[in-house]
Write a structure and sequence with these properties.
single chain; alpha+beta; OB fold (Dihydrolipoamide Acetyltransferase, E2P); seven-stranded antiparallel sheet; 10 strands; LytTR family transcriptional regulator; LytR-like
């Protein structure tokens, strides 16, 4: 892979152009890393105040009683977004689906254990824990152990 950087003072914003013969998983990973480095915050509501959340500090986002909640440390903050919108925004930041109603931050996972029923229990550095359903457990385990290769 060849990297070319052109500095031009007349440019109003940074533009990244990728030229390739075909789309590869390496290119997909590169695009995800570039998108993840861009600033982006979640806006939540707690006690009638708007709160800006750094996605890197969020352990997981889940759906409960038709509300979308972000778990950051021991706080629970409601987000005014749909779960699929949160997932699309956070996928480049190493968030992945844990179940139909949970998206987790793989960078915040401290340890995990596989239970006898096939579910995966994930423990976060903050002390939070969440379960990964059987249908997503294999993919999450592979991503945790494999260093996020071939996907988010």
């Amino acid at each position: 892979m060849k990297v070319m950087i052109e500095i031009d003072g007349a440019m109003e914003e940074t533009v990244i152009t990728i030229q390739a013969k075909e789309w590869t998983t390496e290119l997909e990973e590169l695009v995800k890393r570039v998108k993840a480095s861009q600033p982006g915050r979640l806006i939540g509501v707690k006690d009638e105040q708007s709160i800006l959340l750094d996605p890197a500090k969020v352990d997981f986002v889940y759906s409960e009683n038709r509300k979308i909640i972000a778990a950051a440390d021991q706080q629970r903050i409601e987000l005014k977004m749909k779960l699929y919108e949160v997932e699309a925004m956070l996928a480049p930041r190493f968030f992945t689906r844990f179940s139909k109603s949970v998206i987790g931050n793989l960078h915040q996972v401290e340890k995990f254990e596989l239970s006898f029923n096939g579910n995966l229990c994930v423990y976060f550095y903050s002390g939070n824990k969440e379960y990964v359903s059987r249908s997503f457990a294999g993919a999450v385990k592979d991503k945790l152990m494999g260093g996020f290769k071939n996907g988010s």
